[in-house]
UniProtKB/TrEMBL annotation:
It is found in: Cytoplasm. Its EC number is 2.1.1.77. One of its GO terms (biological process) is methylation. It comes from the Bacteria. One of its GO terms (molecular function) is methyltransferase activity. Keywords: Cytoplasm, Methyltransferase, S-adenosyl-L-methionine, Transferase. The keyword Ribonucleoprotein does not apply. This is Protein-L-isoaspartate O-methyltransferase. It comes from Microtetraspora malaysiensis. CDD domains: AdoMet_MTases. Gene3D superfamilies: Vaccinia Virus protein VP39.
Length: 417
């Protein structure tokens, strides 16, 4: 495919043309390792992404790292989007699609379905399901306009809508493009198939590639990601506390019922502070910390600040997916401070710290600090936990070091070895 990219990136193309931007996007995704196969490369080069995101500028549509929001609810929260190209490429590579493959996509929009259709060809089967008629109408129209009218667009609840369209022997690949708390599609996957699903547990989302392995599905290559939450029967609501009129939000999956008024008061009150002695460099991954704390503490959740509000109410270690421990009336979250001594002598580093609010702020801050230090000592250089997905009625032994997340259809086992 290199000849193709040399052709379409010549100076004969206008600098802001869709073709030039598309070629630049594909080149970037390939150089950064998200695109690894000629089939996926050719699909990204062929499908006009801008046609599926008319509300975005050409530059925004072809930004390799950015999502395009296509619909929001009355509160402003995104309910439909075109995922970031890097993540779409990762998921398509994980699916290992081939000519003639039969593929189910859960969560529509059209662009990803077009990429899939480009890879599997007209002899393949692509079924894309969404619960929102606004989404399916757009998807069907955009697919027809761009040369993929054979993609089967289904309006319905993904919990059951894909059943009647499943081919004999099951789908060769199931690609889920919404944040799913559970997995009701296990029985639709062919024996040799691969299912890529952004699975939610303990407020964490990891895109996992599941393959059959005896009586379980074995989870491979957990990838940090964020997706619009699934709607319909499969929806699962975490406990959520919007503080300071929505400037700061806490979310936790289980545990005792949180007292929003008490937490709101805690935010405005005295703050505890601890520093962990654990440092991180720019670009250094530490996402296994989230998994480790969620393994040992069911008070684990996430905190985020409204980017347009909040001011200095909180000082979070990261804008999204920032860990927090939450009790009914107190919380403690992760923060960072610059501890670089001499930037010219070495890399710049930041130290993890903890800020706590509420009556239990000191104790909760110490516990979160201990979790971070334990992760640093014992698990920081570990490859991470193993994931397995079992049917809900299976007898699953408790892992020696891990946790079982029990859901309606399945049991997700996270085990550290």
């Amino acid at each position: 495919m290199r000849e193709y990219f040399e052709l379409v990136t010549t100076d004969t193309l206008p600098s802001e043309s869709p073709e030039r931007l598309r070629a630049a996007m594909v080149t970037t995704l390939t150089e950064q390792g998200y695109i690894r196969s000629p089939e996926v490369q050719a699909a990204f080069a062929a499908v006009p992404r801008e046609r599926f995101a008319p509300e975005a500028s050409l530059t925004a549509a072809y930004s390799p790292q950015d999502v395009v929001i296509t619909k929001r609810d009355k509160t402003g929260r995104a309910t439909s989007s075109v995922s970031a190209p890097w993540l779409q490429a990762e998921m398509l590579e994980a699916a290992r699609l081939f000519r003639g493959a039969r593929v189910l996509e859960v969560g529509s929009g059209g662009y990803n379905a077009a990429l899939i259709a480009q890879i599997v060809g007209p002899e393949g089967l692509v079924v894309t399901v969404d619960i929102d008629p606004y989404v399916t109408e757009r998807a069907e129209r955009f697919l027809a306009e761009t040369g993929y009218p054979h993609v089967k667009v289904v309006l319905g609840d993904a919990e059951h809508a894909a059943e009647e369209h499943a081919p004999e022997g099951g789908y060769d690949a199931i690609i889920v493009t919404v944040g799913a708390w559970d997995c009701p599609w296990r029985h639709l996957l062919a024996t040799s198939g691969r299912m890529i699903i952004p699975l939610r547990f303990s407020t964490i989302t990891r895109s996992l590639t599941f393959v059959h392995d005896g009586d379980r599905l074995r989870g491979l290559d957990p990838t940090v990601c964020g997706f619009v939450a699934i709607q319909g029967v499969g929806a699962h609501l975490n406990q959520e506390a919007a503080l300071a009129d929505g400037a700061v939000t806490l979310t936790v999956e289980g545990g005792p019922t949180v007292d929003v008024a008490a937490l709101d008061q805690a935010l405005m009150g005295e703050r505890a502070q601890l520093w962990t002695g654990v440092t991180v460099a720019r670009g250094e991954p530490f996402d296994s910390m989230h998994l480790r704390i969620a393994t040992v503490d069911d008070r684990f959740g996430m905190i985020w600040r409204n980017p347009d509000r909040g001011g200095d109410l909180v000082d979070l270690a990261m804008r999204w997916f920032c860990p927090v421990l939450v009790t009914p009336n107190s919380f403690a979250y992760l923060t960072l401070r610059d501890v670089s001594r001499d930037e010219e002598a070495g890399e710049r580093r930041w130290e993890f710290g903890v800020y706590g609010h509420g009556p239990s702020r000191t104790e909760l801050s110490r516990q979160l600090c201990d979790h971070v230090q334990s992760w640093d000592r014992n698990w920081r250089n570990h490859s991470g936990p193993d994931f397995s997905l079992y049917p809900a009625d299976a007898t699953v032994p408790e892992p020696a070091d891990g946790r079982i997340f029990r859901k309606h259809h399945t049991q997700l086992v996270m085990a550290w070895t």
